[in-house]
Amino acid sequence: MSCLSFPERFTYLRRLLAAASGLLLSASGALAAPEALRPFAADTWNELARAPQRPQAVVFSTRDCTHCPGVIDSLAQSIKKSGAKARLVVVVMDGAGLEADLLKDRHYRQADVLYAFDGAAVSLRYRVNPGWRGLTPYVILVPAQGEPQFFSGAPPTPAVRDFLRP
Predict the structure, then answer these.
(1) Rounded CA gap, 158 and 144, in Å?
(2) Fewest Cβ atoms closer than 10 Å to its Cβ: which of 61, 65, 77, 89?
(3) Strands (E), the chain
(4) Same domain, 8 and 65
(5) Domain encompassing residue 24
(6) Residues 66 and 141 in one domain
(7) Cα→Cα distances 84→39, 57, 73, 119, Å
(8) Residues forming a β-bridge with 56
(9) How many domains is the chain partitioned into structurally?
């Protein structure tokens, strides 16, 4: 068994502290991430849309959608930058049974709440908006008061700005 000299012990402790602080920093970033994948069932949209206490940006996504990550990132940044109390909700239409993978995905981790469709996709989409044909990303800006706005693709910047305005 070897004995570490003082400089070696100091270096060892410094590395140990650096590793521990790195773990704490990465864990603190995870605190804001969703803790579980919730089922988006027949009544979920009614619950989300019914006079929320704070505004909600709801993004419907699929795992193979090439534009969805950018829209999620953009909305997350806009919400954070604005200081608004808005919440980012992401619904992964093809995410059932993939909780572990989705909760690790850096884009989905930006959501305050993460859902996956639980039921027939056509029926669930119809409950959200009868005119929605399933294109993603599909974004709904739900203000605390007033009517939701529906967008196929990224919402225009003025709409997001107005939505986040106090």
Answers:
(1) 18
(2) 77
(3) 37-40, 56-61, 87-92, 113-117, 138-142, 149-152
(4) no
(5) 1-30
(6) yes
(7) 26, 12, 16, 33
(8) 87, 142
(9) 2
Question: What are the distances in angstroms from CA 29 to CA 84, 89, 94, 106, 162?
Answer: 19, 18, 26, 11, 28
Residues 53 and 101 in one domain: yes
**Over its length of 166 residues, how does the chain's per-residue pLDDT go in tens digits?**
455 555 565 555 555 445 544 444 433 343 467 889 999 999 999 999 887 789 999 999 999 999 999 999 999 999 999 999 999 999 999 999 999 899 999 999 999 999 999 999 999 999 999 999 999 999 999 998 889 999 999 999 999 999 998 7
Of residues 43, 36, 148, the one with CA closest to residue 90: 36
Our CA angle for 87, 89, 93, nearest 5°, is: 175
For the question of whether the overall pTM of this predicted structure is more than 0.70, the answer is yes
Location of structure tokens 């107005």? 162
- Is residue 49 located within the same domain as residue 80? yes
